[in-house]
Design a protein that fits this description.
It is built from six helices and 18 strands. The chain is mainly beta. It has one domain: Porin (Beta Barrel), CATH 2.40.160.40. The radius of gyration is 22 Å and the shape is elongated. It comes from Vibrio stylophorae.
């Protein structure tokens, strides 16, 4: 398992090194609609957002398979990666006559952060009137690199030597591997249609903690065997949906209701956290048009040592042409320092038995992302 985790983390960092990309949504359809899903997910993607949505299926749906769903996004708001390359080039050719240029390049690195998100998932769902179920696997990896520039590295009294620098670049990668069984049940109370759902899951937390100076920090130096660790635990998701009318659904979901964390002190203290996340959603669906709204009720934080969190108000829309083709768009307004996002995508589902969904996103913090997934229904 450690080899697999090491490969996925280093791969994510390598990808972000070649492009400036931060992620939203756990599957391609949701990403295209601004990350909405709490009230709009189908039975096949309900396990990722709200298990109560497992009851959102048609009479013709018997078994659904989502395999795979892959999404990658990242942001480099202050252009850290390019600035780091520039500084390292200057440092390698350093002479006393380059001190002012060296100082300016080092100062340009201060308080910069790169954030990367990688999602990989699969699900097999069996909807029915008794107890709809879905077995799913989801891997979510969050990678950060952040700088701290120390004033002691400036001035005539300091001669640049990499291993004597006080300034640092810190790389942290953390994530979760969830394997769970989502269950949803619908029932009526005096002509009011409700659904509830629960997802018990085994959860593995993992992280890598790596640091260096601006002169010697290399992204591909991440080594799980040397700098990483993991632990297995248990977690729980809950959800509820209320179908106010034939076309309006209101829903509430809580994910990761048991707070978990993992510490890594191999290269300085670091703690990756998984905290409860609550989202309120609403959806208006009239077959050919769906309009969605999701509101995060609390912030999502990733590392205790990094001042970075996300919280969004999400809007999404889908135009559906006879269930064969879909055109989607969305917007996620950030309530934190993370960038807001524009999203778009398409779905192609000929004959209803096979489908492919594609999505892309652009964020205001110099971020880009993309996602793709395959769907089979029987």
């Amino acid at each position: 398992m450690k080899r697999a985790l090491s490969f996925s983390l280093v791969g994510a960092m390598t990808l972000v090194a070649t492009s400036s990309q931060a992620a939203i949504g756990y599957d391609s359809r949701s990403m295209a609609m601004g990350g909405t899903g709490v009230a709009s997910a189908s039975y096949l993607t309900a396990a990722f957002y709200n298990p109560a949505q497992l009851t959102n299926y048609d009479d013709s749906d018997d078994v659904g398979l989502l395999f795979p769903s892959v999404g990658l996004s990242a942001s480099d708001q202050n252009d850290l990666l390019n600035k780091l390359d520039t500084f390292q080039d200057i440092d390698k050719e350093y002479t006393p006559g380059h001190k002012d240029e060296w100082d300016a390049a080092l100062k340009a690195l201060d308080n910069s952060t790169v954030a990367v998100n990688l999602n990989v998932g699969m699900a097999i769902a069996i909807p029915n009137q008794y107890l709809s179920t879905a077995l799913f696997v989801q891997n979510q990896t969050n990678v950060f690199a952040q700088t701290h520039i120390d004033s002691r590295d400036f001035g005539a009294g300091f001669t640049p030597v990499a291993n004597q620098m006080n300034s640092t670049v810190r790389g942290l990668a953390g994530g979760t591997l969830d394997i769970g069984l989502a269950m949803g049940k619908a029932f009526d109370v005096k002509d009011h249609h409700f659904s509830v759902g629960i997802t018990p899951k085994m959860q593995t937390l993992y992280m890598i903690n790596y640091g260096g100076t601006p002169a010697d920090f290399e992204i591909d130096d991440f080594d799980y065997d040397k700098n990483g660790n993991d632990k297995s635990t248990f977690n729980l998701d809950l959800g509820a949906s209320y179908q106010a009318t034939d076309s309006i659904t209101i829903a509430l979901a809580g994910r990761n209701l048991i707070k978990q964390s993992i510490e890594n002190n191999l290269d300085g203290d670091a703690t990756y956290v998984v905290e409860p996340k609550f989202t309120l959603g609403a959806s208006y669906d009239i077959s050919w048009l769906q309009l969605n709204l999701d509101v995060d009720l609390n912030e999502t934080k990733y590392f205790e040592q990094i001042d970075y969190s996300t919280q969004y108000v999400r809007l999404g829309a889908e135009l559906n042409a006879w269930d064969w083709a879909q055109l989607r768009a969305g917007y996620a307004a950030s309530l934190t320092d993370a960038g807001s996002m524009l999203t778009a995508g398409i779905g192609l589902h000929p004959f209803g038995a096979f489908g492919i969904d594609l999505a892309g996103q652009y964020s205001t913090d110099n971020g880009y992302g993309a996602s793709a997934q395959l769907i089979f229904t029987f």
